[in-house]
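Please predict the structure of the following assembly.
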Amino acid sequence: MEKTAKTLSDLFPGESGIIKEFTDLEMSVKLMEMGCLPGEPVYVERMAPLGDPIAVTISGYQLSLRKQEASTIILV
Amino acid sequence: MALVGNPNTGKSTLFNLLTGLNQKIANFPGVTVDKKTGTYKLPTGQEAQLIDLPGAYSLYPKSKDEAMLLEVLADTKNEIYPDVVVFIADATNLKRNLLLFSQVADLKLPTIIALNMMDLAKRGGVHIQIDKLAQKLGVRVVPISARNSDGIDTLKLAISETSSLATQTDTIDFSEFLNPVALQELQTELGVKEPYEAVLLAHQYGQTSFLSTKQKEYIGAWVTAHGFKSQDLQAKETIARYNAINEVLFDTVKTDIQPLGESYSNRIDRVLTHKFWGLGIFMLILFTIFQSIFSWSAYPMSLIEDAFVWLGNTAHQLLPAGQLTNLVVDGVLSGLSGVLVFIPQIAILFAFIAILEDTGYMARVTFMMDRIMRKVGLNGKSVVPLIGGLACAVPSIMSARNIENWKDRIITILVTPLVSCSARLPIYTLLISLVVPDYRILGILNMQGLTLMAMYVISLVSAVLVAWVLKLIIKARERGYFIMELPVYRMPRWKNVGYTMYDKVKAFVFEAGKVIVAISIILWVLASYGPGNRFALIDEQFANPKYTQQFSPQQVANLKASARLENSYAGVLGKSIEPIIKPLGFDWKIGIALITSFAAREVFVGTMATLYSAQGDGSRTESVRDRMAEARNPDTGELVFTLPVAFSLMIFYAYAMQCMSTLAVVYRETKSWKWPLIQLVYMTAMAYVASLLVYQFLK
């Protein structure tokens, strides 16, 4: 996968993007089950007090995930 | 009947609503996953059996809890294989909820949907056309609000009217990504009716308990022969299902632009997960919990203890004197007392935990603490058991069940008893008052207080260090995820809080209680019987006028008790371990105390009282302390309890697993003797080495 692609972990709180694809197949299965699907808009709500994990709003609810997990989500 | 749904959808509220107190919690065979079953009366008068399956997001499990869904729903020979599935869905988040529904629907069990949180959905601007949705899915959809008990009667009626035929419409076409001929082959071989069942088994045959070895071998060969790529297919299936769900929802659900429910929850989060305030508030909450377990439980605990003392005395008076009475009173009753005395602490801790879980705050705790705790091999949720451990390890270890990840949970369970619990306090205060002078540095810092604080700091640091070491040793069974829903904040449901307290207390009393009573009886035997005719000789010796004239009857009784303990099996054991514990600075009397206090640390004080024939009993600390302060080694004439000995002893109690209730509860929580044994061994080894270092260094 191209390293330069923008991922969810690059976003700051208050920023949003649209999911394009995933870099990790195993992770993608879990993420998609939780509603993170390609084409779905995602909005970063906040970071944990220590900067990791992050909380995002996706398909109408809030999800928290680690930055390392967010970095497998490539945005459009 | 089985209750199925995503986590945080109000599943347990609905379960409690339907069954009330007619519920039972057991474990699924072989695993520590709660199996909640209950009964309730259908409108027809029939009794229905309901099983509450663990919440899951899909039929592809990420944890042991989630794996139970497939075990129950796909094994038709299972005794709890349901006739009807009640699928509970959150109306405010229908899309994600319907993913699991669409999977469960493909197992073709008769299903109805209980559409929960209708009130929240309405307020949040979500408009659902129930009839159209029901028609498209092919099942009955009953709108409810479990929190307000709305729609429950309609749901009960709907359940009783469900036919034995599955009516749901087909969801996705498997031939898009699987060879239909190959799938048919697999179905025939395994004898399963539904194609999706065969698909699920092909994905998960490795962890499925109900398949025979021959079936597993067949599936293994089939998977290789057809190039079945599990994860790839899961991804494809999930996308296909979501496409189908979008198709269903597109003209049945309309959402207004700005959902209301989000914003108030976000406003709370801005404070509660704030960079600075968030952690502060969390510390404050932890402190409140710790204080409450400590202070609120003190009164009921002493009440329980007093009741047992009274019961014991009364029994001694009423029953004929003899060993049988002694066994009942000093063995069984004291064991029971040791079990029941934990009830207040368990109830209080779980009331708090239920409130934190129910409001949605626990998810934020995990969110905030994940980064720090992950570094040392723990989980954001480990914070609660660790802090609870300051009061008592028993309820805290039970609370580690909230940690989904197996490895994180085991590590939390293994290190929680290192945290200095309230039972160590009497030992610390006794020993500190014995050797640490009561003076102040700089006018405010009391030396004794500082020493006590140091013991607490040592315990917490050790717990973290051991966790870090265990993280490197223990292998993970599953990949650690942190993809977790942050549910909207809600008011706690007091009924649920009550049920949680009731369940946890019951589980402890009946399961850990058995082990505790058994060990109490063994320890009683060890302390009340001696080899040969030693006891008879002691009786003879103290019947001698030399003693009866010189001492009061009370003093004679004290001396006799001391001599008996010295010559009992426990005493003999204490003496035989003296060479081993000598390098730690302990003599055989301390050895006896180490053995008797294996049941519970606080017994140390009582044993010291008996050994040094203190006036009264162990509850009068000053008298024990004075006797111990005077104690001298009969051979050398040196004081027994010097500073190095006292510190070595404190460190020993800080690390040693001197608590059978904890071992019993670890056995219950891990369902094997392996972990309690590992814990016992590593903690005792640590205690020995640390005490040795302390004594040899200070000597």
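The mean pLDDT of chain A is 88. The first strand of chain A starts at residue 16 and ends at 22.
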